[in-house]
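hey team, just a heads up i'm posting the complex here instead of the shared drive bc the drive is being weird again. everything in one block, sequence lines first with there labels, then the predicted structure for the whole assembly after. its four chains so it's a bit long, scroll down
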Amino acid sequence: MVKLKDVAKKANVSLATASLALNDSKLIKEETKKEVLYWAEKINYIPNIYARKLAKGKSYNICIMINSKNFFESPNIYYLKIIGGVIKESEDTEYTVSFSFYRDKEELKLLSKKRNKHNMDGIMILDVIEKNMLDNLIKDLKIPIVLIDNHKKFKNIYGVDNDDFGGSYKATKYLIDLGHKRIGYIGYPDKHPLGKECWGGFKKALSDNNLREYCVYKKCRSFKSVIKSGRNAMAELLEKKLIPSAFFCASDYLAIGAIEVLRNKGYKIPADVSFIGMDDMELSSEIEPHLTTVRINMEELGRVGIKKLISIINNNYSGEVKTIISNEIVERRSCSRIN
Amino acid sequence: MVKLKDVAKKANVSLATASLALNDSKLIKEETKKEVLYWAEKINYIPNIYARKLAKGKSYNICIMINSKNFFESPNIYYLKIIGGVIKESEDTEYTVSFSFYRDKEELKLLSKKRNKHNMDGIMILDVIEKNMLDNLIKDLKIPIVLIDNHKKFKNIYGVDNDDFGGSYKATKYLIDLGHKRIGYIGYPDKHPLGKECWGGFKKALSDNNLREYCVYKKCRSFKSVIKSGRNAMAELLEKKLIPSAFFCASDYLAIGAIEVLRNKGYKIPADVSFIGMDDMELSSEIEPHLTTVRINMEELGRVGIKKLISIINNNYSGEVKTIISNEIVERRSCSRIN
DNA sequence: TTGTAGGCGTTATCAA
DNA sequence: TTGATAACGCCTACAA
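-- predicted structure starts here --
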């Protein structure tokens, strides 16, 4: 393995000079730098990052923590997108990223093991985490933490979140602008992480336009079999009431299930009923009719999150505690104008 | 930061003894070990993995390489499952895992940068890779490589693959055992990575049972909008021929699209036509009727892959060049017996 | 069974 | 502007 010493020798400078030159120090003459760079390239020098980490006394590593239960029981494409964003964004930094699963109770015991393995300067958490676990993490580790997609929980902990409220507002407004006056809602219970925000955005859009909710289902619980929840929702709604001219669904899968039930009853989508979802899953552009939805940019959450964490680690972050990532409407074919 | 020296001091032994004790060397008396362990625990000693890597002269790191185009353009849950398996399995080893995207042409130039960042003892590749890229990797890096899910390509390079052939055989056999004699096939072109294996397994099952294929569609191309491919397939098939009593589809999404078209034409599934898919996606157990399929265990591919790679790195691998991971049929409600 | 001392490849602090 | 040299924290002959 060719090392710094070899480069120094070839370039006819000392180890120290070679090191400084390669790190583009302004102490070194341009000419010398060039010479060193030339030889480094020439003899294919690859720095040993571990020696560097050691000498610098910093790990330059960020540990991404993921709840293993959530991850393995309901593997979700969102994880993949966040992870992709994180890796991508970290590529051009001096930081490496490592991943670590955590479980429920044993957490604290595991923690020390994790640290052994992942010496780290900062932590990013990809799941909705419980308060006591988070408290323990903070107390034990004393390193910066950034929470991703925690739906604005833990107001005083750094985080990056999707704008659930704004997305719901936007979606509902979109329906209103299409002329809809009777708008239904299918979403999660109030205590669900997504419940409050989505419902809030929906309500606000209505009241800002002097409208009232028409037909509401808020009993979708788990993150699994969400399509089934959508079916159940619509089945229940069909029994009880008149169907509105449009629905906002807090998840595309909810919309997909609901649409299926309605179509089976002979309703035409979007001629009879319009639907707008939220998420933009792969499936959403494949179903009939292609679903209009609010696209959530999870990759962006990951990218922004890692940048933020690195800034915090380096003591030069000065932005908001919670960063809110905006989302946009993707118009497809599940909504129609009403007169 | 508490270090080994501190532990040694507390335990009243030398640095060397402390080190050996913590590494459970048999040179050290049980009693001494206990004392050292006790103090390490007590003062919350966390080894610096980078110092260790450096002293050992090994990176103890494995780099997982992912084609960024595939990853970002068609993020697939399979990636997530492999990654999950890899991380999980690496947890109890001394190896860390890092991830790195690669692109097409610039590959070679990027390579050196990657190495700077991910000093590594081995490489795992998660995508179907092209021959010339692989050759370059091998030539430049000279470290062990394991290919994941490459559909048995590159016979002399270590790899872990799903048993596409066996899965197709099994699925087809399942249909045959249900009494079906006219069995259709919806899958990929012969030159598609999945094409040959799936078609081979299907054909073999038929010929082993003195049956011939009845109605074949092999034009599904991309990995994107596979559901649409399924729809197209069935639309075309409907025009041309009699529909068989059962279909094997080389992907669940293909089956989902095909079923949709057939149901819209008034066919009852599975009363009129049975379907068996392959993959077992989340969606497969949500659609109507719940899809019977061959479950591919991608997490297992990841786990086995990392174990294999570590063995190879440590020069104690003695198994097959290609490890084939078996899959199993998940019976749901899309197949019926025929008389 | 344990301790001494040198080395792993960098970076950083002084002098020169 | 550069060069010695001492860290960084751990491992491991070799000696005792």
